Amino acid sequence: MHEVAIVGMGIAVPGASSPSDFWQLLNTGRPQFSEPSGNYRLESFWSGDPDAEDRTYVRVSGFVTGLRLHPRLATEIADGLFTRDDGEAIRLRHCLLQAGDSMTTRDSDRGCCVIGGTGLTSRRLDEAIVIEAAANKIAARLQVRSAADEPDEERLRYLLRDHFGHGDTPPTQLLPDQVVHAAVSGLLPGGCAVTVVDTACSSALYAIDLGARYLVAGDCEIAYCGGLSGVTPRYNIAFAKLGGLSRRGRLSVFDRNADGTLFSEAAAVVALKTLGRALEDGDPVLGVLAGFGASSDGRGRWVCAASPAGQSLCIERAQRAAGLDASQVDWIVAHGTGTAAGDAAELTALAETAPAAGRLCASNKPIVGHAGWSAGAVSVIHALLALRYGCIPAHHGFITEPPSSPVGTRVDVPVHSRPWRGKDGQPRTVGVSSFGFGGTNAHLLISEHVPRRAAAAAPGDPVVLVAWAAHLPGEPSRAEIEHMLATGVWTCPRTFGRYEPPPFDEIRLPARAARSTDPSQLMALHLAAMMIAEYGELWAPLRDTTGVIATLTGPAPLAVGNLLRCYAAELERAVTSEDAKALAAFLEDVRADNPPTSRDTLPGIMPNIMAARLANHYDLHGLTMLVDSGRTSGYTALDVAALYLATGELDMALVLTVNLAVPAGLARLAGAEPGTIAEGAFLLALTRSSVARRHGWRAHAEIPSCTREPAGPDRMETSFVAADAAISLLTTLHRNSS
Length: 738
Known about the structure:
Elements: E1 4-12, H1 19-28, H2 71-78, H3 87-100, E2 111-116, H4 123-141, H5 152-164, H6 176-184, E3 192-198, H7 203-216, E4 222-229, H8 233-240, E5 266-274, H9 275-281, E6 287-296, H10 308-322, E7 331-333, H11 340-352, E8 359-362, H12 365-368, H13 375-389, E9 391-392, E10 411-412, E11 418-419, E12 429-436, E13 440-447, E14 463-471, H14 478-487, H15 504-507, H16 511-515, H17 519-535, E15 546-553, H18 557-566, H19 568-574, H20 580-593, H21 601-605, H22 609-618, E16 624-628, H23 633-646, E17 652-659, H24 667-670, E18 680-688, H25 689-695, E19 701-702, H26 724-737
């Protein structure tokens, strides 16, 4: 197995425009939190009453202001290639350019870019959704005016765009995969495969591991990996209803006074090559990826309650992958969010996995805040800088340990900076932890030239399909679905209409929580129940090594409704008096159809929770993730599953693809006309051929070794989009068998 080297890094966080700025910030320890100022109007979303409907109680977050742009990017903006409206793409491109500054490239190089991200933390995307949905629905309630007048929908769209300060960026370019495509354009030689990974706050670590696997598999020579995240009013509102934000406006991680976290805008990227190629090119080797561990919390009291057992499992898996014991890991950059429950779970996991001498750990979040989907990459750069300077920076904001805490016994939180030197001839090694909302855990070990010891692919052991299930409108039978697959003629309805929750024994959610859970998640649970009814619970003997890789097409209906509730005050500010009555009727319908923001809202609308629901319901402990590469997302999901199965990280992968219809009001945003995308969901169970034989499972089809960029006449594109890959695979299977 090739070792993978980190050869470049770039960062943009509150108070720091470069790695050297970040190092200075880590050592001075000055918190970087402020009110939103020009980002958004705080009074439309804030209330001093924590129980106020659809409002947050937090006034401050971390904002990237005064970013000193990379010189090439500054020139590109001056030349009109980017505008200041492209805020997210600009931050990510700034980091990509930094990461590539010291790296050698060749004309024959192939590249990939894997970025942790989500549309949920993009304020510009949120506003675009509000603009499109509100303009369409308010216009429908206005009386038809004379033909000479400008159409109401266009007039309202213009009015709302002006209110929110949107430029001419087409709405489709605000979608996560398109933002990354724009940021990476022209930076990598050859075609660049782009994948967005969503495992919530552990996304960036999963992105780094996935990029490393593409390198080792020979799919590319250079991988840019990291994360991108923002601050949005809606996300702050939803997290506040969980009681998860700091009322004091500061983070006290691992401290008795910890009362919540604060989210920040951030982007962070590392550039990867195989170590041999990096040394051949004379690139600086900032660190070597020694081992990665992933896990899901599995069954617990709540899908979003942190589990020390799940966190311990990913730390132990990383150490096994690296061939190291706990005593050979010098310290850990902790996830350290500053929530009382999250800190308690992490401290327990750190204590349980610590060597006899205890575990040294620190967090950067008291200074730069919770970087969300980019948090893992921010912490990786924290670790790389400590390697470079031979110093472990102090953990700031810690005064007193909580009651019954392992701090001071099994866990050591450094309140002063400490020198970091190798011991007993061993290379220095640091662990980085990130734990995603929904119980998706990751731990990455970085060291000085320690070989990566992940299991190699077994020759002649292909990845195979052993089970599948489809959930389509009209509930066609298995025989009817097989007939549609064999003939290519889809006779089922195109939409579920108003989706009704499945029976309680399939979802195990009380009625209140089910009403606050998006249909995409309910479909996933129903699909798993369908698969069990057909095949039995295949994953029962493989719970520890069964993972879920999901993909989603279409706007999550509940997320859109919740967003409109949260933006009601802004809409009332924006429209004219002639539209006020229609707006009031529209908002009345929105509130009737969508419950107020509550503790159930965030887990109910986050796309990555779709996969986490299966892990929680069936007590699965392999990795879970959501991937997004636009129209090829289904193929990417198959390819990611095959990569983790081939190396033994997983023994079974459940590939979940869900399609949701695009309503008329969001057609421009989705880049698809209403009715062109069919609703439906598919679940595929994949494993290695040897595992299938051992358990007596029939191998229905072999999965190609690389499906990420399908080409040729056999590629099938259907109106199911996210499920194109599943449809293509199953169509081939049933045409061959008929």
